[in-house]
């Protein structure tokens, strides 16, 4: 596995690659089995797989959340090697943002609802870094988790809007045995919060309406950012202490 911290070296390597069948998995590190499922889909569907590890500051609306974001670079590199990844990009902020974020991708509809309503500027940061990474990697396919449903929808929209030559592949949410969606931020839950956390997915699945689910969650001690039913899915975000969890499910039709 090749590791590139220097984007100039990566670009030289990319130019020398003759394959068009490149799969790409963008991540913020602290890898878990959810990331593994994306990498597996890419390894199975492409000649080469590239993964990026970059905790993107422009998508964090709260400094404390960024500072507390889990990191385990050596562990991540061991995992990526074992999962069959060919190239890993580990750029720093200055390399990815030579413009200091003067230029950015903005979306003016969906990005200000749901998670965007609670994390101002979040999706501008996500779309901007994803566009930068797509331009650097030039993948045939890029893999995103359905856990981040709104992100997946916005990335698909950006690719369509800008005629970007990449197929976006959505991958099902990987869960713990008790239903909790795997997330790097789960590491920050205290034992008591971890015991409560599966109640989030349970409420989304069991309650008859989005309002009922929000009320049940509030009553169980979650701080509810939102629960909404949209286009046949129920999406929600809650906070347990300082940790924010998101999840979504398909609604039975
Ligand atoms: N449980 C999961 N199942 C499937 N895909 C996932 C899961 N968790 C994360 N992903 C996907 O992995 C990619 C990288 O996500 P990221 O590195 O932010 O991890 P995360 O676990 O979502 O972290 P966070 O704590 O920031 O939510 C995204 O496309 C995301 O949707
Ligand atoms: C897509 C992404 C890597 C952009 O920083 C991030 O939002 C994530 O990990 O879901
Ligand atoms: N996977 C979502 C990234 C974030 O919460 O910023």
From TrEMBL:
EC number: 6.3.2.1
GO biological process: pantothenate biosynthetic process
Binding residue positions for beta-alanine: 59
Pathway where this protein functions: Cofactor biosynthesis; (R)-pantothenate biosynthesis; (R)-pantothenate from (R)-pantoate and beta-alanine: step 1/1
MF GO annotations: ATP binding; pantoate-beta-alanine ligase activity
Family designation: Belongs to the pantothenate synthetase family.
Record's miscellaneous remark: The reaction proceeds by a bi uni uni bi ping pong mechanism.
Binding sites annotated in the UniProt record for ATP: 28-35, 145-148, 174, 182-185
Lineage, highest ranks first: Bacteria, Pseudomonadati, Pseudomonadota, Gammaproteobacteria, Chromatiales
Protein name per the record: Pantothenate synthetase
Keywords annotated in UniProt: ATP-binding, Cytoplasm, Ligase, Nucleotide-binding, Pantothenate biosynthesis
Cellular component terms per the entry's GO annotation: cytosol
Matches recorded under InterPro entries: Pantoate_ligase (IPR003721), Pantoate_ligase_C (IPR042176), Rossmann-like_a/b/a_fold (IPR014729)
Keyword Cytoplasm appears in the UniProt entry: yes
Positions of the catalytic residues: 35
Subunit-structure text: Homodimer.
């Amino acid at each position: 596995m090749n590791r590139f911290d220097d984007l100039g070296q990566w670009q030289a390597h990319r130019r020398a690659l003759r394959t068009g069948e490149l799969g790409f998995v963008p991540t913020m590190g602290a890898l878990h089995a959810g990331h593994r499922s994306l990498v597996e889909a890419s390894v199975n569907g492409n000649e080469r797989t590239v993964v990026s590890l970059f905790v993107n500051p422009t998508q964090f609306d709260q400094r404390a959340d960024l500072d507390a974001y889990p990191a385990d670079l050596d562990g991540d590199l061991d995992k990526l090697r074992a999962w069959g990844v060919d190239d890993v990009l580990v750029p720093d902020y200055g390399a990815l943002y030579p413009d200091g974020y003067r230029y950015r991708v903005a979306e003016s509809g969906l990005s200000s609802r749901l998670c965007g309503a609670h994390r101002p500027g979040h999706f501008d940061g996500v779309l901007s870094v994803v566009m930068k990474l797509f331009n650097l990697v030039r993948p045939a396919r890029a893999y995103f988790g359905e856990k981040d449903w709104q992100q997946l929808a916005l990335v698909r929209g950006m690719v369509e809007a800008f005629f970007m030559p990449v197929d976006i592949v959505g991958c099902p949410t990987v869960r713990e045995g008790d239903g909790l969606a795997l997330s790097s931020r789960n590491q920050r839950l205290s034992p008591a919060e971890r015991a409560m956390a599966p109640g989030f997915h349970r409420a989304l699945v069991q309650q008859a309406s989005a309002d009922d689910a929000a009320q049940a969650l509030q009553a169980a001690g979650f701080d509810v950012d939102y629960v909404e039913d949209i286009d046949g899915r129920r999406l929600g975000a809650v906070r347990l202490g300082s940790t924010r969890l998101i999840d979504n499910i398909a609604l039975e039709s």
